[in-house]
Every structure is written in structure tokens, then in C-alpha cells.
Amino acid sequence: MLIAAQGALNALLTDIAIAARSPLHDRPRKVAKAIGAHLLNPELLAGRHCACCPDRYVRHLLYADPAGSYAAVALVWRPGQMSPIHAHRTWCAFGVHRGVLTEGFYRFADNDPPQQSSSALRAPGSVCHGPADPHQIHRLANLGSDTALSIHVYGAPFERFGEDVNLIYEA
Predict the structure, then answer these.
(1) How far apart are CA 63 and CA 48, in angstroms?
(2) 50-168 CATH
(3) In a 10 Å sphere around its CB, with 0-12 CB exposed, 13-18 middle and 19+ buried, how is residue 171 labelled?
């Protein structure tokens, strides 16, 4: 089982590496497609300890590009956990491996904080992507009763995620 799981994860990471070399204008879409091809494989993260935290979602590093151009992480979401309302300072792509996430979309209204304008359910196998854009504001949340797990790839070195990935907005 562990050999199959490692093979499944290696296949995902290989496909991401190929897609991450695409021209920047098409990179997020191609990385999302690469992620999507593996999300429904039950062996993908089998045997890999992806602990959760009672207070917040947790990121687990799956791979950091040695050149620092991207990093892939698994996020574990307990019921009720959610990201802050944010946009991205870099391109990103993500997909849901287990559970269901709700993605809320936000827009600016005059000089007020962003207001939610719509939402979408992201079930296992769902993928999304986007460029760096301070106006593509969203929030991911696990509103279900089971733990969810998603795979995210950001165009930034892992050690710089705090500074280079999320542009956080106050609600």
C-alpha cells in the first residue's frame, strides 16, 4: 500500500512539475488540470500523516521546487474551519481530494470591506485556479461534518507563503 501511495503522489508531483513550466498566462490552468487528474485516486496520500489542528486548517508540504518557483501543499480542514477572506499575490491552483469545501466569492462595495457575492461547492475531484489578482477575492470553508483535504499549488517558495501568497482582507 505504501509503495502504491508513494507512486500515486510521485505521479501527481511529476505532472505538476511539467505543468508548472508552462507559460505564465496558462500555468494556473495547466497546474489545476494536472492536480485534477489525480484527486480521485484513493492512494494519493495514503500512509502520509496529514494531521489536523483544532483551531485552524493546516498546510503540509508535499513538494517545494528547488528553484523556488512553486510549492505544493495538502491542506487539512476540520469541520467549521475556513481561510481568511483573501486574494492571491501569485498564481494558484487547487483541487479537493476528500470532503467538500465551500468557496465563497467576494467583491468590493464602495469603500466597504469585501462582501460575499456568491459561493460554490467544491466536491472531490473539483479544481480551480487563478492568477495573481487582488480583485479575485475568495474564502474556502469546510461547512460539512467530515474532515476535508485539498491539494494547493502556489507560485511561490514554501518558506515565503506567509508573505507572497495571500493578500488578506478584513470582513
Answers:
(1) 13
(2) 2.60.120.10
(3) exposed
